Amino acid sequence: MTQSMHRSHRVAGALVGSAVGDALGAPFEFGPPGQLTARFPVPARGARTEMCGGGSLGWAPGEFTDDTQMALLVATSLVDNAGPDLADVFARFTRWADANPPDIGNQTRAVLSSGRPWDVAAAEHFARSGHAAGNGGLMRTTPAAIWFSRAGTEATMDGARRISALTHGDPSAGEGAAILHELMRVALEGGDPLDAVEPALALVAEEHRDRWATVLDPAWTPADATESNGAVWPTLGQAMWALRTGRDFAEVLRLVVDLGGDTDTVACVAGGLAGAVFGMGGIPSRWASALHGRVPGHGEKLWRLADLQQLAAALDGAAQQSYDPGVIPRIGPAEVLPGIWAANLDGARYSEQDFAVISLCRLGEPFEHELQRMAYVADNEHNSDLDVVLADVLEDMAALRAEGHRLLVHCHGGASRTGLVLRAWLMRTEGMAADEATAHVAARWPHLGLWNASFTAALDRLAVQSPGADRP
Ligand SMILES: [Mg+2]
């Protein structure tokens, strides 16, 4: 985690991180505490990961739930309309609810199926029931938090309140969404969201401030919660407690899922914030790569990691990149090291399907391979979290090799990023020095590219950290 991390890494990390939390927590929803760690006492980096699917609703491994489905409806509405159109967001929600999504919050369903106009439905439900402080407005905030972040504190807090109020008439739920928007704005700018709590609380409507200040106090722990984490206050309180307590993205998410209860939603909120703080490269690739899901009532489009990354960039005002690698001559696969093959993008795409593919570039259309990890490395000198990504890739490779998989490492050209990982693998497994590993790979893979000085620097740091002792 560095201050110099490019904003785009944080933006992608926020949207992908929230969806990862949602999918990771979904199998454990409404369960007792401690389930994730009981089932996975150590990181599960082989073919079967902590993205295990199941639960009472029978999710597929890596499948996201209503939290992300609703977030995608907000996101696509913002992008399609180039700004907030609340009636349109509500119409998208209603179409979704009418399609009977497998998971939908009680308050959300009641409001969206009431048949009342968008601008009165939630308020009328709240006036009637007196209950509307569930976490259903908070869980879908990430896209709008990205969208409004560039407009500043007041604009983003106001936008949060208005979108929350579409389904949650209790203003306290809106204040929670407003706080979360502001914390996300600060995190996306490279600041510490923990430092942003107090100034954000000062902007909360007075009658709601104390209750929010209580759950966001640095001394608050989940044991202090006075209601279940289906309510809005402990949801944000638990997410912030995990962010204060966890050392990296994976630990933050493990902490919240292990709290039990509304695990998908609390992990979704924590994952959005942690993704903004630790960046896209801080999200374990075994989790991000498994992400997928559809949005009921809105076509058959299957949303996957690359779609979420593109959408995140669009929400932040970046030009939509339609990624088409064009026609490139196929290189590989060739076995460069024992059990480790190398290729360029097309060589990997059309390779035998039993390869476990380690992808180090954007893909355009996804591969058909069953086992694929997509790591976030750019072919330039701006990977602020290169050490973290490299460690993650090497650990996964070791676990997959231990299970007997043939590994296929590739990037777009098969030269620089592929070469980085092959060289690092040799240093790790054979205890080679960096230049020894470079010579070894160069003799067996003529496509090796050495133009990224930051990659060589990362190898030097790797040599300092694990001089051959840390063998998988
Ligand atoms: Mg859910």
TrEMBL record:
Any one GO MF annotation of this record: phosphoprotein phosphatase activity
Cofactor names: Mg(2+)
Record's keyword annotation contains Electron transport: no
Organism: Blastococcus aggregatus
Keywords, ordered alphabetically: Hydrolase, Magnesium, Metal-binding, Protein phosphatase
Keyword Magnesium appears in the UniProt entry: yes
Family: Belongs to the ADP-ribosylglycohydrolase family.
Family matches, as Pfam families: ADP_ribosyl_GH, DSPc
Annotated binding of Mg(2+), by residue: T65, D66, D67, D262, D264, T265
Superkingdom, taxonomy of origin: Bacteria
Textual note on the cofactor: Binds 2 magnesium ions per subunit.
Protein name: ADP-ribosyl-[dinitrogen reductase] hydrolase
Domain Tyrosine specific protein phosphatases: 391-448
